[in-house]
Each structure stands twice: as structure tokens, then as C-alpha cells.
Specification:
This protein has 5 helices and no strands. It is mostly helical.
Length: 105
């Protein structure tokens, strides 16, 4: 299983540590909130709204270098728009992995 990493952030920052730290701070701030909002909508069976949060979370997945997970998120977003939860457990495992990674930074 692929692991979250900072490769993309490091590439974007081009060696500028201040910019790198700013990007990490944004992910640290936004990720927990977006995950919480996603879960709130799943619990309320508001699948269209949950799909919107999955769409937002896809960007964080990319930023953390999770290429395979991005495709899981794409499939899950589509599933939610069709009121299906087939990829839910895979997607939520990715969210947990990302959360744990961000906490350690």
C-alpha cells in the first residue's frame, strides 16, 4: 500500500522551506475539517454533499502523493453521486492514513 509523503509539496516549494511549511500548515488545517464535514454528510445520508467533500479531499490526496488513492477517491465520488457506498471502507482507510501522517509532521 502506498504511503503519504511530501514529495509533491517539496517539488512545489522548490527548496523554499517557508513555502513548504505554509503548504503543510494549510493541509493540517483543512484536512481534519474536510474529513469531519464528509463524515457528517455520510451519517446524514447526504450523499451528493458528501461527494463534494470527497472531491475536495482528492486534492489533499494528490498533495500527499497518493496516486492510487486518488483513483479510489474518483470512483467513490462517482459512487456517492449514484447513492452507492461501495468504495467507502477503502476511502475511509485512506483518510485515516492521511490523518495519521499529518499528525506526525
Amino acid at each position: 500500500m502506498e504511503q503519504p509523503n511530501l514529495s509533491y509539496i517539496e517539488e512545489l516549494s522548490g527548496g523554499d522551506n517557508a513555502f513548504k511549511e505554509k503548504l503543510i500548515a494549510i493541509v493540517r488545517k483543512e484536512l481534519p475539517r474536510e474529513i469531519s464535514d464528509y463524515k457528517t454528510n455520510i451519517e446524514a445520508a447526504s450523499y451528493e454533499k458528501a461527494a463534494e467533500y470527497v472531491h475536495k479531499l482528492k486534492h489533499k490526496i494528490s498533495i500527499l502523493g497518493l496516486e492510487e488513492a486518488y483513483y479510489v477517491a474518483m470512483d467513490y465520488e462517482e459512487d456517492l453521486r449514484n447513492e452507492r457506498l461501495e468504495c467507502q471502507s477503502k476511502f475511509e482507510a485512506i483518510l485515516l492514513q492521511m490523518s495519521q501522517f499529518i499528525e506526525l509532521l
